[in-house]
Amino acid sequence: MTMSYAPLGRTGMTVSRFTLGAMMFGAAGNPDHDDCIRIIHTALDRGINFIDTADMYSAGESESIVGKALRGRRDQVILATKGHFALEEGLNRGGNSRRHLLHAVDASLTRLGTDYVDLYQVHRPDWDTDLEETLGVLTDLVRAGKIRTFGCSTFPAHEIVESHRVADARGLMRFRTEQPPYSLLARGIERDVLPVAEKWGMGVLTWSPLGFGFLTGRYRRGIKAGAEGRAALRPAWFDPADPVVARKLDVVEQLVEVADKLGVPLPALATAFPLAHRAVTSVIIGPRTLEQLESTLEHADLVLDDDVLDRLDAIVPPGTDVYDPNGAANPPWIVDAKQRRRVVRR
């Protein structure tokens, strides 16, 4: 396996085509710090130079683990983290305001044991905070040397475009990257987010290439989900009586046939797919164990040709979401009916 690399948009940084995601390091995944550090060191030794974490992953524990792993190796790594979500209860503890992000960045730097991060990302849109407020504080953090550049995560295309308009109008720095969900089960971003990111020269780091576990091959039609992992935490997500789950399982069966014809396991097909899109810079892989990392990297040089991609398009048409990959963070006008219906005066 030979790791390949690509420019991170127009930031001037070059990153591996696979990013080591640290979401599973800590209490939410693997609580063994020494084991997590071994995973990180193995990834670096295998050519990965890009690590992505967030302050919310295991309530900061993930960042602490990454910080310990990078002692003596910090200069080898393009380090990214994220902020937005509240880590504790109370007013003004989350969001993309100046007040919160100044605190969040300092706290992340302390946990990571570093003076700066190469890429800082706002983890979700904040519909209550003006984009000028967010871009203004991020610009100031770059000038203060605490972050090298900044990006956004799971932003809709219209909000990305608006952010660039605001940056140009106010003389602020722009979002340089976007981190969206993208997989063979969730292709919706092909309609607008990916073309917009490409137009603006943004790096794109995609997450959940395994579709929240459905593209691991562990969950199949007629096979009862085991009482471990995601199936144990959220059994409703894997209930075949749910029409959405049933549709996922039907698609998985067809994808397994494609993978079998290629002679590779389904996860290899799934992680290779996002990299076939010309706008995608790097795919985030989030191993919980060393075995999972090794298994993924075993097929890291798999490139899907046009015939395979045509077969995949026939199974899940371009721009189609088999399920809503971001249902938990939909904008308020989708969640709250009152925000999309006209007021009827009586």
TrEMBL record:
Q: Which GO terms describe its cellular component?
A: cytosol
Q: Which residues form a coiled coil?
A: none
Signal sequence, start to end: none
Top-rank lineage group of the source organism: Bacteria
Keywords of the record? Oxidoreductase
Q: Name one GO molecular function term.
A: oxidoreductase activity
In terms of InterPro entries, this protein maps to: AKR, AKR_Detox_Biosynth, NAD(P)_OxRdtase_dom_sf, NADP_OxRdtase_dom
NADP-dependent oxidoreductase domain: which residues? 19-315
| SUPFAM superfamilies associated with the record | NAD(P)-linked oxidoreductase
PANTHER family noted in UniProt: NAD(P)-LINKED OXIDOREDUCTASE SUPERFAMILY PROTEIN, NADH-SPECIFIC METHYLGLYOXAL REDUCTASE-RELATED
Query: By what name is this protein known?
Result: Predicted oxidoreductase
